[in-house]
Amino acid sequence: MVAVENGGEEIVVREYDEVKDGSQVEEVERKCEVGPSGKLCLFTDLLGDPLCRIRNSPAFLMLVAEMVVEEKKVVVGMIRGCIKTVTCGKKRSNDHFKPLFTKVAYILGLRVSPSHRRLGIGLKLVCKMEEWFKENGVEYSYIATESDNQASIKLFTLKCGYSKFRTPSILVQPVFAHRVKITRRVTIIKLSPTDAETLYRHRFETTEFFPHDIDSILNNKLNLGTYLAIFNDGLSWRGVDELLASLPESWATLSVWNSKEVFKLEVRGASRVRRLLAKTTRFMDRVFPTLQLPSVPDVFRPFGFHFLYGLGGEGPLAMKLMKALCGYAHNLAKQHGCGVVATEVASLEPLRFGIPHWPRLSCTEDLWCIKRLSAITNQDNEEYDGDWTMSPPGMSIFVDPRDF
Question: Which CATH code fits 172-354?
Answer without folding.
Answer: 3.40.630
